[in-house]
Each structure stands twice: as structure tokens, then as C-alpha cells.
Description:
By secondary structure, this protein is mainly α. It is 46% helix and 5% strand. It has helices spanning 5-24, 56-62, 65-85, 97-114, and strands at 39-41, 47-50. A two-stranded antiparallel sheet has the order 1-2. The longest helix is centred in the middle third of the chain and has 21 residues, at 65-85. The model is unreliable at 131-143 (pLDDT under 50).
Amino acid sequence: MSDNTDLLAFVRARLAEEEGVAQEAGGDGWRCPAEAPGEVHDRTSGIAFVVRSRGYDRHIAYQDPARTLRRVETNRVLLDEYEEIASLDTDRPVQDFASGRAVGLGFVVRQMAAEHAGHPDYRVKWLPRFSHWGPSGAPGGQV
């Protein structure tokens, strides 16, 4: 059995941090009006801020708080799905559907954690792993 509780807690904590930042920014959807290059507007069409160089305005508007909150929520759905079967995500999984699902979702959760590899609580053991599925020497698990 594998205990992936700490991995789940780490990713959930990072999502909570992102959620807090997005909420502090108002949780609004932002946009860049074509008639006002460099300006980023909030949902009321008020100017949230101005960045007049290198297309930063469009990039920042694309990363608006509302989009961040939606992404956090969809990531939590993945974490909930993984949490149900995380104990099956091992280095040597059984070759059944549930274990395959656990390994697949585990790969996704490890990728999510890897986004924060520079965080002091990140652990190298969470690096995404690639599992061989099938008898050794048989490509694609076929004998």
C-alpha cells in the first residue's frame, strides 16, 4: 500500500493559496478592450490596471481571477477522484482497472505538484513516475 496523503495535502494547500490570491483580486473576469490597448478591465468595465508593453496586458487578463477560481475547482475534482483510490497508486500496481485508474490519476496529481517544485514543502519523491504496464520485455503489455 502507498500513502499519498501528504501529496494530496500539498497540492490542496497550493490550490488554496491560489484561490486566496484570486479572491483577493476580486474574483472577477478581466478583459482587454481592443479600443484601449494595454488596459485590463474588470467586469464593471473599470480599469483594473494598465500594462503598456509586450502584450503583458493580454496575458494577465487571460490569467484573470475568475479563470483561476474555475481551474482551482476543476483541479479539486481531480484530487477528489484520486483520493478515493490513491492507496492503489504504487510503484508496482496490480494490473486491473482500479489500479490503472489510480496510476493515471496519480500521474496527473504529481504533475500538479511539480508545478510547485520550488516550494520548500515539495518532496522529490513526488516527481511524476512512469509505470511499465505489462510483463517485462513485452511492448505495450502484450505477451
